[in-house]
Every structure is written in structure tokens, then in C-alpha cells.
Amino acid sequence: MNLIQQMPAILIGMPLIAAFLTPIIDRVNKKIRNGFVIVVLILEEIFMITLAWHVFTNGIAIYTMGASNPSIVPLQAAVPIRIVLEIDGMSAFMGLISATVCLAAGIYSISFIKEGNGKGKYYTLLLIMLVGMLGMEFTGDLFNLFVFLEILSITSCALIAYRNWYGDAVEGAFKYMVVSNIAALFVLFAIGLLYSRYDLLNIAAISKIMEYGSLEKIALVLLVSAFAMKCGAVPMHFWAPDSYTVAPAPITAILVSASQASLYALFRTCFSLYGNLMDYHSIGIVLILFGLLSMFIGVTMALPQKDIKRLMAYHAVSQTGYMLLGVGVGLYLLGSSNFNTYGVKAMEGGIFHIINHAMYKGLLFLTAGAIFYRLKTRNLNEMGGLAHTMKFTSIFFIIGALAIAGIPPFNGFASKLLIYEACYKVNPILSIIAMLVSILTLASFVKVFHSAFMGPKLHDVEEAPKSLLIGMGILTFVIILFGLFPGWVVNNIVHPAVTALANRIDYINAVMGG
Amino acid sequence: MIWNIPFITVIVLIAVGLYAVLFKRNLIKIAVGITIIESGVNLFLITLGYRKGGVAPIYTNLPPNVEIPKGMVLPVPQALTLTSIVIGVAVLALILSFTMKIYEHYKSLDSHIVRRLKE
Q1: What is the mean pLDDT of residues A481-502?
Q2: Is residue A179 within 8 Å of A242, Cβ to Cβ?
Q3: Which residues does A514 contact at the CB level (< 8 Å), separation at least 6?
Q4: Is the ipTM of this complex over 0.85?
Q5: Residues of B at the A interface (Cβ-Cβ below 8 Å)?
Q6: What is the pairing mode between strands A61-64 and A84-87?
Q7: What is the pTM of this model?
Q8: What CATH fold (topology level) applies to the domain B2-118?
Q9: Contact A199/B84, CB-based, under 8 Å?
Q10: Domain edges within chain B
């Protein structure tokens, strides 16, 4: 048995089994439980890196559930049977993000989650959340995508409401639940429409025989609006600040990459399911408009906020705009001769920004959590002078803030520069707005840094506990690594993801054969 | 056409559900609205698999003179609907427990009063 061949199933199965073992181990000993969860998350990260390396060097990996040889899809009358997991460059790329953020958040949780009587179940839900994200990113089957989407939204809602002794936590969770459920039901409706036409659920198989009629247009609109709603793009962004604010900090960090899993599903729908069949010019323009609106409205709403996590949550909306802008420009140019020159660059920028955003926004939420852990407040006006005692936290905050504002040598600069350059070729106004938003981002983080960390010593607080520092340290390490070697990262990690998205034919052939 | 009635019902159910979610202020009514949308989508899936005069798709228990596979209803949409119903139960349970907790904290279920986050 070739282990690398079984890796996709292990990656989804292992945390699922571990999730339900955790409450049992919790009965025996709390320390063993913590160790168990961390070991599972570290193994997950190692397996994910192995699988990603395999995918980046050898091309698409296929896993057919329950087949005797999992890397061959059984085709009956040219219809793939059984559930197929299809891991191409983009899926592996997103899987790396989810595994890394969950590892950092898992370690961070050990000291952070002290209150509440359901700590064993907290880790259960955290592991199932990882399963939901990886499942969404790996699956090659539309209905399977819906199931993992629901698994992800149910577990994340339960975790947002973890601190249910605060009324606002439950309120935020309720909002997220309503939004994500309506989005998921739209997705199911669209899947039903596509099934009624083709009697198929496999993405590659549908894509192969797709004809672009009015039914497919309705399905496309439903899918795009549902996934855009779940990733927090502007007209449907209202849930993001509310639920990001009230969730425990490690969960907020994971929520950022959970919304990116929806972003992945959006890109997968646009590029692999519809590809150049659809009117990619107008869908590209729609994505660019979503992007511009998210960027601008997100950052302007962030400036006046007094709640540190709410401010960062609005920045998360604004940064999602950059990804939509970069990939939208790529989609707009798909098929034209310019695609190979600056269309690819724009997509590289947008996709590189996904991993960068998951790292630095995760880090910033974790630092906000560390402040909340010591001060028990999120209000910026009640903070001040924290740099006197919380030295590591303030260093981590500076790194995260500089990265989000796009200051070299941190990773945000590399991806933003790619986006600026490529968008300038399409229309200079896009770049100008992007830069303006970047400046406003810097302005609002200068404000946060000044009011939280600078000034005279107001609070007698200690440095955050070790597990919080290790969790933040992992993300900081990745940020600095990506900031120092952006060329290597773009060539070896981001470029395979972009080519995987752009080459729809490869995605289809991997399942359907030749 | 009589066969379009299920599809019209689907649209009506989804529209009623969306109306409840968007315009009702009571949180329980919002939960009910979500359930109605879900029923609409489930009905849509079931209707897709229906064949006029079809029998259940069990090979070992077929009545005589049934054409295979055209005389059978489609099994896949039924499997999808079953999964979707199970998910729906979990969602409904969670959303109602949220409603309960919100009532404990705010002593109200009016969405205009339950807005501590906006302040």
C-alpha cells in the first residue's frame, strides 16, 4: 500500500476519528487530551506538506472513496461512480493554509480556553472544523462540497457561541448561522439544477459535458452569490464583523481561513466548473466590483471602530477584496492573449494574498486575543502602555500590522505589489484604489498600535502565557519566511495553484481520462 | 400542466421562507423561515427524481413488466434529500438552542432589541 496514495483519505479521516476520541480522553486526563490534539494537528500539518509536495511535483492526485485502486476513477458508461477526491495545486495550497492555521490556533487554545465546562468538546469541534475545510478543498463532487460546507458552518457556529455566558457571542453565532444556512441551501438548489440537467454530481464530469444554457446561468448566479456571501464580500459582509468579534480569538483565526475555503469554492466554480464556457468577462467584472467595494467599504468602516477585534474584522472584509480583485482580473482576461502575460500575474497576486492574509490576519486576531486574555476588554480606549510588559505580543503585533499594510520586507508587500502591477495594465484606477486602501489600512493599524501599546503604563499585566506565544510565533515565522523569499514561494507554491485553476482541461482529464 | 405544480410549490416555499427571514423580527420566525426554505429545496430534489408511474429502485423486488432503468424513480436525489434532512435537523437544533440562550440573556426575541453588537 502506497502511503502517499492514501494521504487524502487519511487527512480527512484522521482528525474526524481524533475528534470523537477527544471527549473520551478528556474524561481520563486533561493534559493527555491537550497533547493528543496537538499531536494530531502536527501530524496533519506534516501529512499536508507531504501531499502538497507530491501534488506540486507530480500533478493532480485522485482518491476514489472505496475503490480497490483509489487513484483510478471507475467509469461506467463515461460516468464516474463513487465519491472522488481531487487534489490539484489549488486544493493543496488551500489545504496548507487550513492545516497551518489550525495548528497555530490549536496550540494557542491550550492556555486561552480556560473558562467553560465543555473544553473537551471545544477541541472536538475544532478538529471537525479542520475536517470541514479540508473536505471542501479536496472534494471533486458537488454534493460532497455541500455536506462539508454544512459541517464547517455548523461547527463554526457552535464555536463562535462557545462563550455563551456573553449574550453577544450567541447573537453573533445566530447571525452567522442564518447567513451560512441560506447560502448552503442556495448551493444545494444550484446543485439540484445541475443534477436535473446532467444526472451527474462530479465537478469534472459536469464540466466536460456542460452546455451554457439558461439553467446553467441560474445555477451560476446562485453559486457565485452563495459563496460570495459566505466569504464576506461587501454587499453580504454584515455577518463578518459581528461573528469575528465575539468568537474566541483562535476560532476567529480559523474562521478567516474558513471563509477562504468558501472563496476557494467560488474560484473552483468559476474556473473549473464553468471555465471559459461562461461569459467570463462579465463574471470577472462582477468579481472585480465585489473586490473594489469590499476593499473600500471594509477599510472605511474599520477606521472609526473602537473594538479592536471588530476593527480587524472589517480589515478582513477589506483584504478579501484584494483576493477577489486579483483573481477577478485574471478571470476577466482568461482566454485573451494578455492572460499569459499579466493575467497570470494578477492571479498569482490574488492567490498569494490568500495565504498571506490567512497568516497575518490570523496573527493579528491572536494578538488581540492575547490582549483580551490579560485585560478582559476589547475596547481600545481602555488599553494603553501594553508594550511595557507584553513585549513579545507587541512585536508580533507590529509584524502583523506591517504585513497587512504591505510594508516590505513582510509578505503582504509581495502579494500586493503583484496585484498593483497587474491591475495597472488593465486599468490604472484599480491600482490607485488598491494603494489608497493600503494606506488607510496602515493608518488604522497605526491608531491601534498607538492606543493599545504605546503611552504610559496603565495596566499592571504580565506577558501572555507560553502557549499563546508559541501559537503566534508559528504564524510570525511563516510571515517572515514568505516575506524574505517571496520569489521561491510564488514559483513553487503559488504558481502551481494558479496553473491548476487556469487549466480546466487538466482538471477534467484527471477524472475522466484522456 | 399538472406536473409543474411541484416546481411552483418549490418556488412559493422558497419565497415564503426568504420573506420570513428578511422581514420578520422574531428570531423563532426566522428559524421557521430557514426550515421552510429547506423544505422547498428538499421538495425540489425529490421532484427531480420522480418518474410518472415509477417504482422504487430495488432490483431484487421489482414488479413484472418494469423497464430497467426507465421505469424506476432515481435513487440519487432521494439519498441527497435524506442527507439534507439530517443536516437540517442539526441546524434547526443548533439555531433553536441559540434562540433559547439569546432569550436568557436579552429577555426578548425581537431582532430590534437583540443588537448589542451594533452599539
Answers
A1: 90
A2: no
A3: none
A4: yes
A5: 14, 18, 21, 27, 30, 34, 37-38, 41, 44-45, 48, 74, 76-77, 80, 83-84, 87, 90-91, 94-95, 98-99, 101-102, 105-106, 114-117
A6: antiparallel
A7: 0.93
A8: Helix Hairpins (1.10.287)
A9: no
A10: 2-118
